[in-house]
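User: Here's a structure from my thesis project, written as structure tokens. My advisor, Dr. K., wants to see whether a designed sequence matches the one we expressed. Can you design one independently, without my sequence as a hint?
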């Protein structure tokens, strides 16, 4: 599997606080990789470093084996890296289709034709199940619809790599299930690689082939979902020393059946 993204020994500090410490991770073309960890672990800071919002104090970040440290976010986007945000950021006074057209006009393979941008936006809106809201103001959408709009805007940039920051946060079990189906289709049908931050642990365990775990700015574990679910360091990070000593499966395994109650409990758990 050829490398798409490489983060090599990256560190980022803010004053005396080390937000990310010597972080290394890789993502191959076609992979769906999960990035999990307790609140404050440094996950979103890692996204900000990859997308150019922050510049690392040390280390390298490569996309398709080209160094991208120091490039502006819009330049990194044009290379094929798109992201969503933990807090949804729709352009509320604009319609859904206008929001999505922005990505088509300014992303990778951008077009200057408004007609082409509109046609492309409509296709993406249909793909993300927002067709019925295409001409409604973005501010009128429900939370689940706004999260799909965030995803649709990112897709409009024609990404090769999609960074998703808690795209399932606040969704009910049915909405989570639909989102998982959509992400699998994006990966298999559109050939988009995905790196996803998620607190719904059971959902990300079912979605991803590889899980990376961060705590206090550092990577503490990497492996398959089943490996991560029994990793003592991961259990300690989530549940504390006493629970870790039992070496039990406190995190869900990928092969376990996910019920709506499980998903809800998993979100509460972290």
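Assistant: Designed independently from the structure alone:
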């Amino acid at each position: 599997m050829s490398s798409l993204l490489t983060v090599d020994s990256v560190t980022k500090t803010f004053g005396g606080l080390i937000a990310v410490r010597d972080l290394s991770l890789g993502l191959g073309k076609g992979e769906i990789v999960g990035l999990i960890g307790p609140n404050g672990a440094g996950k979103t800071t890692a996204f900000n470093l990859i997308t150019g919002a922050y510049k690392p104090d040390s280390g390298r970040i490569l996309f398709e084996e080209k160094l991208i440290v120091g490039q502006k976010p819009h330049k990194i986007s044009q290379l094929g890296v798109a992201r969503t945000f933990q807090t949804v950021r729709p352009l509320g006074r604009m319609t859904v289709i206008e929001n999505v057209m922005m990505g088509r006009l300014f992303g990778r393979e951008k077009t200057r034709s408004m007609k082409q941008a509109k046609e492309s936006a409509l296709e993406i809106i249909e793909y993300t199940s927002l067709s019925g809201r295409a001409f409604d103001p973005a501010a009128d959408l429900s939370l689940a619809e706004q999260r799909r709009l965030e995803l649709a805007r990112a897709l409009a940039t024609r990404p090769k790599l999609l960074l998703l920051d808690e795209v399932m946060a606040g969704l009910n079990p049915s909405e989570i299930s639909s989102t998982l189906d959509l992400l699998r289709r994006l990966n298999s049908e559109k050939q988009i690689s995905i790196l996803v931050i998620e607190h719904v642990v059971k959902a990300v365990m079912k979605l991803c082939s590889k899980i990376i775990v961060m705590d206090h700015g550092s990577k503490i574990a990497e492996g398959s979902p089943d490996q991560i679910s029994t990793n003592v360091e991961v259990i300690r990070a989530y549940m504390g020393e006493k629970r870790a000593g039992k070496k039990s499966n406190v995190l869900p395994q990928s092969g376990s059946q996910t019920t709506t109650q499980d998903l809800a409990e998993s979100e509460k758990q972290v």
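When you compare it with your expressed construct, this may help: The mean pLDDT is 88.
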